[in-house]
Amino acid sequence: MFTRKTFRPATLVAVAVAAVLALSGCGASTPASSSSADNPYGLIEPGSIRVASLGDSKPYTFTDAQGKFTGFDVELFTDVARRAGVDNVVFTGQDFSGLLAAVANGQFDAGVAAIGITDKRKETVDFSDGYLAGYLTIITTKTSGINDPEGLSGKRLGVVQGTLQEAYAVKNFTSASLVRFPDNNTAVSAVNSGAVDAHFLDYEAAKSYQEQFGLVSAADIPSFDAPAGFAVAKGKTEFKEALNKGLAEAMEDGTWKKLYEKWFPGSPMPEQYLPKAEQTSSPAPSN
Q1: Which of 187, 186, 188, 169 is nearest to 177 (CA)?
Q2: Nearest-10 Cα torsion for 124, 130, 133, 138
Q3: Checking phi first, is residue 221 left (phi over 0); if not, alpha (psi -120 to 50) or beta?
Q4: pLDDT per residue over 179-221, tens digit each?
Q5: Cα–Cα distance between 164 and 185 in angstroms, integer?
Q6: Which end of the chain is more exposed for a tag (fewer CB within 10 A), N or C?
Q7: What is the tens place of the pLDDT at every residue in 121-138?
């Protein structure tokens, strides 16, 4: 006689759950280990680095006539990424004010735009070792009457929001009225139109605008206490260490020096980033 077994609902549920857990358990370990091996740096897309940058910060990061990103920082980071084993680097333009937040929340793997390393910014992201130091510049028209920082009193001074220049201006140019812009191009247009009296930006970028629009420098201010570094999200230790290793190699084999001479011809060269054999004194720490 055929005997039919009857399972209660609770038993059926238990059996089904056990089967699902068994199946998921069998398949879970392989993808996890594979993902770790294929993506040791925790990149958004294995084998590719997505970079948040600026399209108008010549000669650091900017887009050429064909819309391709180029500049000192772009070439240096691409070289460092290759040394870390990643050949595909994709640069995307962002407003500087939101660039670090975009890296911190995982929209990008790195931020590359001559970003000065400060304690405040370290609260949001981690940084590679420093790779660049320089000056800040006030540019203005030849007829503005501004010849030094004191001449900013009562004047409208442009700054790009979120930059070192903004922080410096807030602290040191207290008698000026600060006008915040999303990028240098917009700020320089405001200088040319008379909407602001001057713009405060990086020295190297200022040289380009001076040549292009006939503007002049009212002051060049040293900024060696906040060297530029590559920004990465917190917790990406292996990625940061790989970038640091690549940077050290690029400096020691002369790649950094060649790129500096290419993009900053005639500018003073920070000695701490040269090959050790070419350093004549003990270099200052990068960060």
Answers
A1: 169
A2: -10
A3: beta
A4: 999 999 999 999 999 999 999 999 988 998 999 999 999 999 8
A5: 17
A6: N
A7: 999 999 999 999 878 999
